[in-house]
């Protein structure tokens, strides 16, 4: 069974709208991450968290918020979606050994 | 903070051939390097990692990688590729908080 799940798997949003991407892990990992992937680029870190109720900014946090209400759940929130936020978003979790386990991704299209 | 670079955007090989994917890094503190594979439309999957000890590390499905401090490299190799190895391969380095910084990826196409 999948250890990291994401919902929705795809979404079309309107410019200026609010978007929430959800991630759930059953790995019992403390660390969770949100990345975005754009065509021709690797993954870039948006936010991460190493404990519930706490989040940290990654490399490209502008325009995004994150929420970690429990060890298992980590959400990414776009308060005012913009065209430039069209991308595939991946959630991942890891333990102290550092190996990251990725979800299947969410394809977000902002129109 | 480390940086990682992958110089080859696309590599084409025939089934049964060997392949080497290049990754170079810049030292930024702790050494932690890894490789991930992404099949089309899927999330990334961990292949192998290096942080200390034997510079040659073995991963899943016959992949191995060799760490070189002198060359600042962590190249991935496989002796005999299969069509199912067609994917995008990402090298990743450690950037603190257990977060990774990824290279831009190398697309491997395996021809029959």
Q: Can you walk me through this structure?
A:
The complex is a heterodimer of chains A (about 110) and B (about 110). Chain A has about 110 residues and is an all-beta fold. Chain A has no helices and eleven strands. In chain A, strand 9 and strand 10 form a beta hairpin. The N and C termini of chain A lie far apart (about 35 Å). The model of chain A has no long low-confidence stretch (mean pLDDT about 95). Chain B is mainly β and about 110 residues long. Chain B has a single domain, classed as Immunoglobulins (Immunoglobulin-like, Sandwich). Helix content of chain B is about 0%, strand content about 50%. Chain B contains no helices and twelve strands. In chain B, strands 2, 5, 6, 10, 11 and 12 form a six-stranded mixed sheet that branches. A four-stranded antiparallel sheet of chain B has the order 3-9-8-7, with no helix packed on it. A two-stranded antiparallel sheet of chain B has the order 1-4. Chain B starts with a strand and ends with a strand. The mean pLDDT of chain B is about 90. At the A-B interface, strand 4, strand 5, strand 9 and strand 10 of A face strand 6 and strand 11 of B.
Distance between the termini of chain B: 40 Å
If helices are DSSP runs of H or I spanning 4 or more residues, what is the number of helices of chain B?
0
Percent of residues of chain A in helical segments? under 10%
On the 0-100 scale, what is the average pLDDT of chain B? 91
Strand content of chain A: over 45%
- Which CATH-level-2 architecture of chain B? Sandwich
Mean pLDDT of chain A: 93
Runs of chain A with pLDDT <50, length 5+? none
Low-confidence spans of chain B:
none
Rg over alpha carbons of chain B: 13 Å
């Amino acid at each position: 069974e999948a250890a990291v799940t994401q919902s929705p798997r795809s979404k079309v949003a309107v410019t200026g709208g609010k978007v929430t991407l959800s991630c759930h892990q059953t790995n019992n990992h403390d660390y969770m991450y949100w990345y975005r992937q754009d065509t021709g680029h690797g993954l870039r870190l948006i936010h991460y968290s190493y404990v519930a109720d706490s989040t940290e900014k990654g490399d490209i946090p502008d325009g995004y918020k994150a929420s970690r209400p429990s060890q298992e759940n980590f959400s990414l929130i776009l308060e005012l979606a913009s065209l430039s936020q069209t991308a595939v978003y991946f959630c991942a979790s890891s333990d102290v050994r550092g190996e990251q386990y990725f979800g299947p991704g969410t394809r977000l299209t902002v129109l | 903070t480390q940086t990682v670079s992958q110089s080859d955007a696309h590599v084409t090989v025939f089934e049964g051939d060997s392949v080497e994917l290049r990754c170079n890094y810049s030292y930024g503190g702790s050494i932690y390097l890894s490789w991930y594979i992404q099949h089309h439309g899927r999330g990334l999957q961990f292949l192998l990692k290096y942080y200390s000890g034997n510079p040659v590390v073995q991963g899943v499905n016959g992949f191995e990688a060799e760490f070189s401090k002198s060359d600042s490299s962590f190249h991935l190799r496989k002796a005999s590729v299969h069509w199912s190895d067609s994917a995008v391969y990402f090298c990743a380095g450690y950037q603190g908080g257990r977060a990774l910084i990824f290279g831009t990826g190398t697309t491997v196409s395996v021809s029959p």
